[in-house]
Amino acid sequence: MMGFFNAILYQPLFNLLVWLYNVIPGHDIGLAILLLTILIKLILYPFSLQALKAQKALAELQPKIEELKVKYKDNKEAMSREMMNLYKENKVNPLSSCLPVLIQLPFLIAVYRVFISGLGSKGLENLYSFVANPGHINAISLGFLDLSKPNLILAVLAGAAQFWQAKMMPRPSVPKNEPGAKDEGMASMMNKQMLYFMPAITIMIGASLPGGLTFYWFLTTILTVGQQYFYFRKSKQKENPNPVR
To answer: How far apart are CA 1 and CA 11, in angstroms?
Structure first.
């Protein structure tokens, strides 16, 4: 299994990063990481777009879901059946929003291995024959940023970017006098806790990882924020083609 992972993800990403490092003027590892992140994001674009559509659709269905929870609170089987019918009628897959996270995880593990063990002199011996061995990877980016060591500033930036991303996601609202308002209030409270909890975890973990990996995570999140912004803006324009001025 590990051999398959190395052949499919680790080695291609490792060789691509070194190749980018070789061809970029000045051989800046930070710029190589930036280009690598963009390429990975482009590969995963269809999956992340599908997740955004699913998250938006789920947010719009949330009031109806809460109504079903109240209506069938004493009949779990009927509630599950009606929810599946609701998803089917609206062509929504509740698991679609989790897909990009699951797909991104192997890429993150591969990039982690690249920075932990691949960029040393011994790791460079495993390059493809058509990728030139630079002999040494200079971990200093932009003349001052050491991406081989943990960097608290990058960790904070990654956490802040994740907070920004979560803030942008649509959140359903149920009027207080509507069925399911109490459940919605509890869900909203949990969402707010996760809004702050996950960025905090990102900062704590990022502060202990090589700066290059934290930089990669920060860039990935920023690109996701940009994708969310344009997607939700485009969706809003479609829903309101002639806004009242």
So the answer is: 14
Ordered DSSP codes for 62-116: HHHHHHHHHHTTT-HHHHHHHHHHHHHHTT--TTGGGHHHHHHHHHHHHHHHIII
For residue 140, which phi and psi values (nearest 5 degrees)?
Answer: -85, 120
Calculate the CA dihedral of residues 44, 46, 49, 50 and round it to 10 degrees: -110
Question: Which residue in the block uniquely carries the two structure tokens 């929003």?
Answer: 97
Which of 214, 159, 169 lies closest to 48, judged by CA? 169
Cα Rg, the chain, nearest whole Å: 22
Q: Is the pTM of this model over 0.90?
A: no
d(CA 69, CA 67): 5
Residues 175-184: tens digit of each pLDDT: 445 444 444 4
Distance CA 24, CA 128 (A): 18
Name the nearest CA neighbour of 27 among 113, 119, 117, 155: 119
Residues 20-55 have pLDDT tens digits of 999 998 899 999 999 999 998 998 888 888 878 877
Any idea which residue has 């999140």 for tokens?
Answer: 221
Sign of the C-alpha dihedral computed for residues 106, 111, 112 and 117 taken in this order: positive
List average pLDDT for each run of 10 residues in the chain, which is 245 residues long.
78 90 91 92 85 79 82 83 85 70 76 74 79 86 87 94 81 50 49 75 90 91 88 76 57
Rounded distance between C-alpha atoms, residue 71 and residue 180, angstroms: 9
